[in-house]
Write a structure and sequence with these properties.
CATH architecture of the largest domain: Orthogonal Bundle
Order of helices and strands: HHHHHHHH
CATH topology of the largest domain: Helix Hairpins
Low-confidence stretches: 1-9, 130-134
Number of domains: 2
Number of helices: 8
Number of strands: 0
Strand content: under 5%
Radius of gyration: 64 Å
Length: 216
């Protein structure tokens, strides 16, 4: 594409068959030779007239040093513009080719960083509330251990617990004594009943019977 653009920019020199750095004398000699070769009266080939017109246009522009300088400047500017546009298009294509992998790599890195932050946050919450997921039996055992540690570390509380145990033992002893007394009374009453069957009722028997207790 650049070669074609450069050829179009140098069409005037190409029409005369010379290089862009040819001297004015070389341009004149080339014009006379090309004009004679492609003159319609001399050349009978098809298209010789159009070729002769291109030779004439090239000579009319390049014969004047000022016009030739202006033409060279325009040609150089157009050539540089073509080069710059081609270079910019090439760089844009290269950037488009390499941007997608870079963006994909950046997205993977961002997701990995976000997952790491979430993992650290979950670990922090588990350290703050470790008992929230424990077994209830284990929690009760821990509570009992804390109470026992408090009892052992507090003498007053230990004395209070000891006094409570003593009162419980006294109450249990009272129930035992009452049960034994009932057994003794029942045995004595049975003995008296067996004896009273052979003797007349006494005043005690009559008194007990009056309140609903019949020992006979």
């Amino acid at each position: 594409m650049l070669r074609r653009s450069a050829q179009r920019c140098c069409d005037l020199y190409a029409a005369l068959g010379v290089r862009p750095n040819a001297s004015q004398g070389e341009l004149r000699e080339a014009y006379l030779r090309m004009a004679k070769q492609h003159h319609p009266d001399v050349a009978n080939s098809h298209g010789s007239g159009a070729h002769f017109q291109r030779v004439q246009r090239a000579w009319e522009t390049l014969r004047c040093p000022q016009q030739r300088l202006a033409y060279d400047s325009t040609t150089r500017f157009e050539t540089n513009s073509q080069i710059l546009r081609h270079r910019a298009a090439k760089q844009a294509a290269y950037a488009a080719q390499n941007t997608a992998p870079k963006m994909h790599w950046y997205e993977d890195l961002r997701q990995a960083a976000q997952q790491e932050r979430m993992r650290q946050e979950m670990n922090r919450k588990e350290k703050i509330f470790p008992d929230a997921y424990d077994d209830p039996v284990r929690m009760q055992a821990q509570q009992f251990e804390r109470v026992m540690r408090e009892v052992r570390s507090n003498p007053d509380f230990g004395q209070f617990v000891g006094a409570g145990l003593q009162m419980k033992l006294i109450c249990q002893l009272g129930f035992i004594l009452a049960a034994m007394l009932n057994l003794l009374l029942w045995a004595w009453a049975k003995q008296q009943r067996s004896q009273s069957s052979t003797r007349p009722p006494s005043s005690l028997d009559r008194a007990l019977k009056s309140v609903g207790i019949d020992l006979r």
